[in-house]
């Protein structure tokens, strides 16, 4: 019985103790500890790492990013381009000798270390500051970057202005 009454007392006092902290803050001016998200957004650190993006047009399929990844969440599959196919280049002029037909990143496994971005020779794999990408189905966090994208036929072509309709 004594134990029961003690538990009752502790339950009552600890609940009121925590409620008292909340009630005290109700009548204090907002000193910027809370913000009206999503109307107001907190500033991000300069080198914030939030979401990966691959500019697949510039990816040469070298796989250096996948080898650097500690959680093995980048899946790349490539094939050699045929000798008779016209040469294609990344926007920095690097020749693209492989056809990347799978470039998937599973962001559910990513630990946001950004180690994959540093060895990328064409700087096409980058960490962005985008952080609002919640989904209902975690399969939607597997990003498929290898889709048919236009490649530059030559390094000079990217300098050409787009043709007017
Ligand atoms: S940020 Fe780190 S864990 Fe995420 S894909 Fe890149 S290397 Fe892998
Ligand atoms: S390191 Fe860069 S160029 Fe190489 S496969 Fe990864 S994203 Fe593509």
Helix-strand layout with pairing:
Elements: H1 2-26, E1 51-54, H2 64-68, E2 74-80, E3 98-106, E4 125-128, E5 142-144
Bound molecules: iron/sulfur cluster (2 copies).
One iron/sulfur cluster binds next to loops.
Report what the structure shows.
The protein has two helices and five strands. The chain has 165 residues and is an alpha+beta fold. The protein has a domain of 108 residues: Alpha-Beta Plaits (2-Layer Sandwich), CATH 3.30.70. The chain has a three-stranded antiparallel sheet, with no helix packed on it. The chain has a two-stranded antiparallel sheet with strand order 1-4. The longest helix is centred in the N-terminal third of the chain and has 25 residues. One iron/sulfur cluster binds next to α2.
Bound molecules: iron/sulfur cluster
Largest sheet: 3 strands, antiparallel
Structural class: alpha+beta
Provide the β-strand percentage band: 15-25%
Strand order of the largest sheet: 2-3-5
Percent in helix: 10-25%
Supply the key terms.
16% strand; elongated; binds iron/sulfur cluster; Alpha-Beta Plaits; three-stranded antiparallel sheet; 2 helices; 165 residues; alpha+beta
In short:
By secondary structure, this protein is an alpha+beta fold.
């Amino acid at each position: 019985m004594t134990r029961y009454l003690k538990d009752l007392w502790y339950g009552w006092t600890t609940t009121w103790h925590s409620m008292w902290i909340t009630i005290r803050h109700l009548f204090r001016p907002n000193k910027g500890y809370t913000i009206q998200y999503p109307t107001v957004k907190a500033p991000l650190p300069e080198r914030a790492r939030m979401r990966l993006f691959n500019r697949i047009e510039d990816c040469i399929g070298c796989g250096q990013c996948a080898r650097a990844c500690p959680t093995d969440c980048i899946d790349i599959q490539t094939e050699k381009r045929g000798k008779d196919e016209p040469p294609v280049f990344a926007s920095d002029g690097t020749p693209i000798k492989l056809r990347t037909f799978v470039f998937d990143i599973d962001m559910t496994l990513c630990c946001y270390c950004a180690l994959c971005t540093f060895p990328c020779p064409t700087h096409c794999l980058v960490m962005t500051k985008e952080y609002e990408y919640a989904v209902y189905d975690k399969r939607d966090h597997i990003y498929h970057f290898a889709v048919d994208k236009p490649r530059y036929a030559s390094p000079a072509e990217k300098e050409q202005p787009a043709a007017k309709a």
